[in-house]
């Protein structure tokens, strides 16, 4: 057993221990078990990545390590194996999943300390890490699908962790079913891929693209279907509506699943299958469109949110939009780097938000906060560091990755200047909603009803500080991603010289605009949420939920309830009704009374005679 | 001898419990469980001794029965019947475990019926003579009807009669087809024969073959059940005692699938190819209709019953697509659905004993008082909606991968059931275990024997889900329609 085969299973062991003993474990013991499960995975990741790095230094072919455990099942001649594959792309993913995951686990241990189902919570978190590691390490698409469904199930369990609140249960169900639509498309993509390539092994599929590529029609469909899976999991248009509601889960869950790891699985999938996407430039263009529209729509929706976590949720959607846009433009290295840096700063933002929520007695409305800079200075500074990375402030990790994406848009054959403009507009909006959040939350007067109770547990603060360091410096971590991806040749035309300065400058301008609009003045009235219909429209996520509800959910439920008693069964009952009716009619005739028989005899004779005569 | 021995043991214990069982009704479950375990042990020993033999059909005991009509008592075994007999015996144990606290009266007659039904089902899987097959087909029907009619819920008589009429009428069609086949054998080979292996030599002309195939198909489609012959199932399931539901969903439905695989596909090759588009359409309609109907139910058992229709639709789809991958998928689905639906019905029974209701609206929030039961229910629901790692996923995935090549549209439609099953699965789990608990509703968590049955089913679903090859490795040889060129039957 090498480190690679054990890597995903450490959290599984700790999950089993936690779920079996659950309430019999006290907080300390449960914490040690949960943290050591993920921690061992993290150590194994570090070792493996070191080895991988050493190998790639000595030879220049893109090296990967493969470990096969057993044959899962056979599809005709093709063996679907339970096997793991590590290359620089999955190395980045496991580093993020185990590293950020570990920090979030530490934070969660402090955050959920008082919960009576603490062990169960940590067990689900461990199980999630296991499923996510299987997803990113899977050497074939069926095993990837196992991880894909596994993270979905854990996401369901964790969103609905406080299941007694009906709203949470509904949000959990919505997340599961909406992503399941994407999963089904993904599964169809796998069927099509198998039909065309006769294998589901990722490396074999990619190798085939060099020798005997997919026909363009097949590539078009397969790329489209895989994109369907990706938009479901990564909360992109049009399957994005589950993510804001998923904030019903405890805040560490939002940080781990709905910001740093699971929601980026779609990005990982598309990056992983780059060879297939290169055969379908139309779909790459569609990926770019999906990303850019999502980043704009999510940004606009974020401008009108009142719940601190919902702002961050829409912001996550929008940042994943950037990653999609990068993938669509062929800037895969930049997109995956942004995935990594986003994991750092968005986890930081969610966790600091969690610390604020904890201090404010589970108050999440930013209009009931305010003035937190003076009352919780450390947390506030950490939050602002996260925000700086989010808006790609020069010098932060977000700057490195986001500028890399934006810089490649103008010349990309599958994107172009229009996408560049959308990305820039998106960056402007990002900055605007970020500083709206900062100004309303941290400045002015404190508006909450309860006194703040900041927690100072070291498990709460240490992960935050480490994430803050990563949010600043994380962009400079070497990734070797160039070995995995095919560089897309851009035409040699010169892009205008002002591109960079506009891209860097516009977010800074937005800070000033936000200051003018949102900064609480000393003698002005308290900030209040907007009242206009446009504000309400964007607060409700630009009406997607209402539309789906009216067009899909309601008709489905109505149709199903309408046929509750099964129309087919009514036909069957018609037969039995006939039998019973004729039976009672016939019984009525057999009354046993002589007069009745004589009368019918007479009438019958008369009818017969009449019939003969006429 | 092996299957005959198993049938004999079960019948013997059934008679013992009927005649003298009323004197020791408390220990009857132990007796029944003991006999089932013994049978399982015999089967396992047989399998380990004959590891490589039953890739192909292996004839077992055969003695003349009604010589003037050429009817023999002839049995045989191959991988398919082995797996189904093993599944039957495992679920028999589950049936006995769920009956322990549930059955309150006429214990001796109850176990007589249960064991006779089991013997009949195993007989169906063992028979190599079609007359014998039909005999066992009826043997399993009568005790099953009795189980529903005597120990069922409030509307049991209606459900029992409906079940009886549906299966009886459809099996009459099959009887006619069986007799005609025997006479055709007489025409072509000079002597009357009901033997399955003799029939494989028959040369059937086309329109006749089609009608004979239809006679078999309808009988099996009612059992499966396929749309539009499914309406007996929700009533029968809902009204049956828990063990009856487990037996119905777990193995009785599988006799329909077994019939399709054993008789319809190999004996009427030409007719099935011609009939395939209709069968596939019925399969797809069953899949979607079952899933939508399941969501519309408010009764726990009715919901699971409709989900069975949806899952068995996958079997029809797989078998009539003539793809060997899908054929393997059908085998996996049969086992997977047997285990997972048995588990869900057991859950329904366990909840009914505590709450005396099957209405989801009267449940809710049970996770607070019974977290382990909730966890188990979640696992079984996850199995039903095709969570990878559990067996049902492998079946669905192989089926759809196999059918996609020849029937892409049907596959896409069938795949929507992956969404549908998630919807009704979530509805079931959340309706019963999440949300606010009703005031004062406290239920006991799983008891020891309930743990045993849940653990058994979970372990099997997980083990086979991760190592489905242990189920499939013997099936390379017996795919029957491999020589059919898939030309007809595109949808």
TrEMBL record, chain A:
It comes from Thalassotalea mangrovi. Residues 72-122 form the NADH-Ubiquinone oxidoreductase (complex I) chain 5 N-terminal domain. Pfam families: Proton_antipo_M, Proton_antipo_N. One of its GO terms (biological process) is electron transport coupled proton transport. NCBIfam families: NDH_I_L (TIGR01974), PRK06590.1 (NF005141). It is a multi-pass membrane protein. It is found in: Endomembrane system; Membrane. Keywords: Membrane, Transmembrane, Transmembrane helix. This is NADH-quinone oxidoreductase subunit L. InterPro entries: NADHpl_OxRdtase_5_subgr, ND/Mrp_TM, NU5C-like, Proton_antipo_N. One of its GO terms (cellular component) is membrane. Coiled coil: none annotated.
UniProtKB/TrEMBL annotation, chain B:
Pfam families: Proton_antipo_M (PF00361). Keywords: Membrane, Transmembrane, Transmembrane helix. Belongs to the complex I subunit 4 family. Residues 127-416 form the NADH:quinone oxidoreductase/Mrp antiporter transmembrane domain. GO terms for cellular component: endomembrane system; membrane. The chain crosses the membrane at residues 7-24, 30-47, 82-100, 109-128, 134-151, 163-184, 204-222, 243-263, 275-296, 303-325, 331-352, 373-395, 407-429, 450-467. It is found in: Endomembrane system; Membrane. Its main location: membrane. It is a multi-pass membrane protein. One of its GO terms (molecular function) is ubiquinone binding. The keyword Amino-acid biosynthesis does not apply. One of its GO terms (biological process) is electron transport coupled proton transport. This is NADH-quinone oxidoreductase subunit M. NCBIfam families: NDH_I_M (TIGR01972). It comes from the Bacteria.
């Amino acid at each position: 057993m090498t480190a690679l085969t054990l890597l995903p299973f450490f959290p599984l062991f700790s999950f089993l221990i936690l779920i079996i003993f659950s309430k019999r474990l006290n907080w300390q013991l449960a914490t040690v078990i949960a943290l050591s499960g993920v921690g061992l995975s993290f150590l194994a990741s570090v070792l493996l990545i070191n080895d991988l790095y050493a190998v790639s230094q000595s030879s220049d072919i893109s090296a990967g390590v493969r470990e096969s455990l057993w044959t899962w099942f056979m599809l005709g001649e093709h063996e679907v194996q339970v096997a793991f594959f590590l290359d620089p792309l999955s190395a980045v993913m496991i580093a993020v999943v185990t590293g950020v995951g570990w920090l979030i686990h530490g934070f969660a241990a402090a955050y959920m300390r008082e919960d009576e189902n603490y062990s169960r919570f940590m067990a689900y978190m461990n199980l999630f890490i296991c499923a996510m590691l299987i997803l990113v390490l899977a050497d074939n698409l069926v095993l990837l699908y196992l991880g894909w469904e596994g993270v979905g199930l854990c996401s369901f369990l964790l969103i609905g962790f406080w299941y007694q609140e009906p709203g949470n249960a509904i949000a959990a169900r919505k997340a599961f079913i909406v992503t399941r639509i994407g999963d089904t498309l993904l599964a169809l993509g796998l069927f099509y891929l198998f039909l065309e390539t006769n294998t589901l092994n990722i490396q074999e599929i990619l190798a085939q693209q060099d020798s005997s590529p997919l026909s363009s029609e097949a590539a078009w469909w397969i790329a489209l279907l895989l994109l369907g899976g990706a938009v479901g999991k990564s909360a992109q248009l049009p399957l994005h509506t589950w993510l804001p509601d998923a904030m019903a889960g405890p805040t560490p869950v939002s940080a781990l699943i709905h910001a740093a790891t699971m929601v980026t699985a779609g990005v990982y999938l598309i990056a992983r299958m780059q060879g297939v996407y290169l055969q379908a430039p139309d779909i790459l263009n569609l990926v770019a469109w999906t990303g850019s529209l999502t980043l704009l729509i999510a940004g606009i929706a974020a401008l009108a949110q009142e719940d601190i976590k919902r702002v961050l949720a829409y912001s996550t959607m929008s940042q994943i939009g950037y990653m999609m846009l990068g993938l669509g433009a062929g800037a895969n290295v930049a997109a995956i780097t942004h995935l990594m840096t986003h994991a750092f700063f968005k986890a930081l933002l969610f966790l600091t938000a969690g610390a604020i929520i904890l201090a404010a007695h589970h108050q999440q409305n930013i209009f009931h906060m305010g003035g937190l800079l003076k009352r919780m200075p450390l947390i506030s500074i950490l939050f602002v560091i996260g925000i700086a990375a989010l808006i790609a402030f020069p010098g932060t990790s977000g700057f490195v990755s986001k500028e890399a994406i934006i810089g490649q848009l103008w010349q990309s054959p599958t994107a172009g200047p229009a996408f560049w403009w959308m990305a820039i507009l998106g960056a402007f909006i990002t900055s605007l909603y970020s500083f709206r959040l900062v100004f309303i939350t941290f400045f002015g007067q404190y508006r909450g009803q309860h006194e703040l109770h900041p927690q100072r547990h070291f498990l709460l603060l240490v992960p935050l500080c480490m994430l803050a360091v990563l949010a600043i410096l994380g962009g400079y971590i070497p990734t070797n991603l160039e070995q995995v991806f095919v560089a897309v040749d851009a035409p040699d035309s010169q892009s205008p010289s002002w591109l960079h300065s506009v891209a860097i400058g516009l977010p800074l301008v937005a800070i000033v605009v936000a200051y003018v609009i949102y900064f609480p003045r000393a003698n002005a009235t308290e900030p209040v949420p907007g009242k206009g219909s446009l504000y309400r429209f964007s607060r409700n996520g630009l009406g997607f939920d209402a539309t789906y509800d009216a067009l899909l959910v309601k008709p489905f439920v109505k149709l199903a309830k309408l046929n509750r008693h099964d129309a087919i069964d009514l036909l069957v009952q018609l037969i039995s009704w006939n039998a019973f009716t004729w039976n009672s009619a016939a019984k009525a005739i057999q009354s046993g009374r002589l007069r009745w028989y004589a009368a019918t005899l007479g009438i019958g004779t008369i009818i017969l005679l009449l019939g003969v005569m006429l | 001898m092996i299957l005959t021995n198993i049938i004999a043991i079960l019948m013997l214990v059934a008679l013992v419990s009927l005649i003298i069982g009323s004197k020791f009704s408390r220990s009857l479950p132990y007796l029944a469980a003991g006999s089932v375990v013994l049978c399982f042990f015999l089967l396992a020993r047989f399998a380990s001794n004959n590891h490589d033999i039953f890739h192909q059909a292996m004839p077992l005991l055969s003695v003349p029965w009604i010589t003037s009509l050429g009817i023999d008592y002839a049995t045989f075994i191959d991988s398919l019947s082995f797996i189904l007999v093993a599944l039957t015996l495992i679920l028999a144990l589950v049936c006995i475990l769920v009956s322990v606290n549930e059955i309150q009266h006429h214990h001796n007659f109850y176990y007589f019926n249960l064991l006779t039904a089991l013997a009949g089902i195993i007989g169906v899987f063992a028979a190599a003579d079609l007359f014998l097959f039909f005999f066992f087909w009826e043997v399993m029907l009568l005790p099953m009807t009795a189980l529903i009619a005597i120990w069922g819920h409030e509307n049991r008589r209606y459900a029992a009669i409906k079940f009886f009429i549906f299966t009886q009428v459809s099996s009459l069609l099959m009887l006619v087809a069986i007799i005609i086949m025997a006479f055709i054998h007489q025409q072509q080979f000079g002597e009357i024969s009901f033997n399955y292996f003799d029939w494989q030599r028959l040369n059937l002309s086309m329109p006749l073959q089609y009608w004979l195939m239809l006679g078999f198909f309808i009988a099996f489609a009612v059992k499966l059940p396929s749309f539009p012959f499914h309406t007996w199932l929700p009533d029968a399931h809902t009204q049956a005692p828990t063990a009856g539901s487990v037996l119905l969903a777990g193995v009785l439905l599988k006799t329909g699938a077994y019939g399709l695989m054993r008789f319809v596909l190999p004996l009427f090759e030409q007719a099935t190819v011609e009939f395939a588009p209709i069968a596939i359409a019925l399969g797809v309609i069953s899949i979607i209709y079952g899933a939508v109907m399941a969501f519309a139910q408010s009764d726990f058992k009715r919901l699971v019953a409709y989900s069975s229709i949806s899952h068995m639709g996958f079997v029809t789809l797989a078998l009539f697509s003539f793809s060997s991958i899908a054929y393997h998928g059908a085998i996996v689905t049969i086992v997977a659905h047997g285990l997972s639906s048995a588990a869900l019905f057991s859950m329904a029974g366990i909840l009914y004993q505590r709450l005396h209701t099957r209405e989801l609206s009267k449940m809710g929030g049970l996770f607070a008082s019974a977290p382990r039961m909730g966890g188990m229910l979640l696992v079984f629901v996850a199995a039903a909606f095709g969570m990878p790692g559990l067996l049902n996923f492998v079946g669905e995935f192989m089926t759809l991968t196999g059918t996609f090549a020849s029937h892409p549209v049907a596959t896409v439609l069938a795949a929507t059931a992956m969404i549908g099953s998630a919807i009704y699965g979530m509805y079931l789990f959340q309706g019963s275990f999440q949300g606010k608990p009703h005031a004062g509703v406290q239920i006991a968590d799983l008891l020891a024997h309930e743990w045993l049955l849940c653990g058994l089913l979970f372990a099997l679903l997980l083990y086979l889900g991760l190592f489905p090859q242990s189920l499939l490795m013997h099936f390379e040889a017996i795919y029957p329609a491999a020589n059919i060129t898939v030309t007809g039957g595109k949808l």
